[in-house]
């Protein structure tokens, strides 16, 4: 529990990035090689073109590189570096990489902010993507770069024998992203090498198909259920809805999970909940639940509405009662009920 001016503890807010399996052992290692006109491979390839990929906390699975980024708390930032080098005695190459599509929905990926930087010769000079100092969501970055990014500089093309470049993945979690406690996401990368002598620079094209990642679809935002807050206080646990509506009426598969709360202290040390981060479970699983598109928070005589865009299975941060709901003090009143809306699982449902 917290008072209204504080945030949940660091321990309670650790989010795991790279949750797809156990990613990597301690220490940097050469984990993959790119052979002529091929993608990433688990073994060093023989032949005229080799590119070694070295990084800390990485693994190769099914021919794809999985980059584990560890745990992060709101307000923290970090980065991971992949080093790509061309061994002596091999031919110059052009290099591309692309990101795997994010899951839909992806609560942590939607809250996390990221960018990538390419450093020729692994020095301080950087080419950043997106351009400049802009940050985009981790999910957006994965969608944006799914079509591929060229790593060697087209104005000074090809990476020669003995040369290297570094790819930095920079990421941060905003301080208000308290709703992602316990959430996981991951980053999968594909690399591609092409011998420069085989294709002239004027004829170079990306080896990756121009395709878009699937996006969350929400043709109808419909009312799932309402939770009445007992004794003006929420606890960090799961709750059954007191009422369910429409296609969800009478279906006990759905629950509301409370991840964090903010309380205000009233006379007599009574704790009243004024803010909470919440998510939806179906059959006990967040991944099976429909994404949330809206949350109504009733406090006093005012209902505050939070639109969740893009829709996801939990709120990005805490949703709160409106201070105007308590005309007497101007402070946030206790939450009296929460109503959750989700993207309909029925085609053509009436929202």
Your description of this structure?
The two termini are 35 Å apart. The longest helix has 7 residues, at 138-144. The protein has helices spanning 10-13, 107-111, 138-144; strands at residues 15-17, 28-35, 40-41, 50-56, 58-61, 64-67, 70-72, 77-85, 93-99, 113-120, 127-129, 136-137, 149-150, 164-172, 184-185, 187-195, 221-228, 238-240, 243-244, 254-265, 271-282, 292-299, 302-312, 319-320, 335-343. Helices cover 5% and strands 42% of the residues. By secondary structure, it is mainly beta. It folds into 2 domains: 10-203; 221-343. Strands 2, 3, 4, 8, 10, 11, 12 and 14 form an 8-stranded antiparallel sheet that branches. The protein is elongated.
Query: How would you describe the shape?
Result: elongated
- Individual helix count: 3
C-alpha-based Rg, rounded: 24 Å
Secondary-structure element sequence? HEEEEEEEEEHEEEHEEEEEEEEEEEEE
Task: State the helicity in percent bands.
Answer: under 10%
Poorly predicted tracts of residues: 1-47, 347-351
């Amino acid at each position: 529990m917290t008072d209204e001016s504080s945030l949940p503890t660091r321990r309670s807010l650790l989010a795991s990035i790279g949750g797809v399996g156990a990613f990597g052992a301690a220490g940097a290692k050469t984990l993959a090689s790119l052979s002529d006109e091929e993608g990433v491979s688990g073994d060093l390839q023989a032949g005229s073109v080799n590119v070694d990929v070295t990084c800390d906390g990485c693994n190769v699975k099914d021919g794809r590189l999985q980059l584990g980024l560890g745990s992060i708390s709101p307000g923290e930032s970090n980065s991971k570096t992949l080093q790509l080098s061309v061994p002596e005695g091999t031919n110059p190459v052009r290099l591309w990489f692309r990101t795997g599509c994010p899951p839909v929905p992806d609560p942590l990926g939607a809250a996390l902010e990221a960018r990538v930087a390419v450093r020729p010769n692994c020095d301080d000079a950087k080419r950043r993507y997106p351009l400049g100092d802009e940050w985009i969501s981790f999910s957006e970055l994965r969608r944006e770069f799914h079509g591929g990014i060229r790593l060697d500089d087209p104005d000074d093309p090809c990476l020669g024998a003995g040369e290297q470049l570094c790819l930095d993945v920079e990421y941060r979690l905003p301080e208000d992203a308290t709703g992602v406690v316990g959430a996981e996401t991951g980053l999968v990368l594909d690399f591609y090498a092409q011998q420069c002598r085989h294709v002239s620079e004027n004829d170079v094209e990306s080896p990756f198909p121009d395709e878009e990642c699937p996006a969350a679809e929400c043709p109808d935002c419909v009312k799932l259920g309402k939770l009445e807050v007992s004794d003006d206080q929420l606890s960090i646990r799961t709750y059954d809805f007191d009422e369910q509506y429409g296609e969800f009426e009478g279906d006990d598969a759905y629950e509301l999970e409370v991840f964090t709360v903010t309380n205000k202290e009233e006379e007599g040390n009574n704790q009243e909940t004024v803010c909470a981060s919440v998510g939806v479970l179906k059959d006990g699983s967040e991944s099976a639940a429909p994404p949330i598109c809206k949350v109504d928070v009733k406090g006093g005589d005012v209902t505050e509405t939070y639109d969740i865009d893009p829709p996801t299975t939990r709120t990005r941060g805490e949703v709160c009662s409106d201070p105007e709901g308590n005309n007497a003090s101007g402070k946030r009143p206790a939450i009296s009920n929460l109503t959750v809306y989700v993207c309909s699982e029925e085609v053509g449902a009436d929202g």
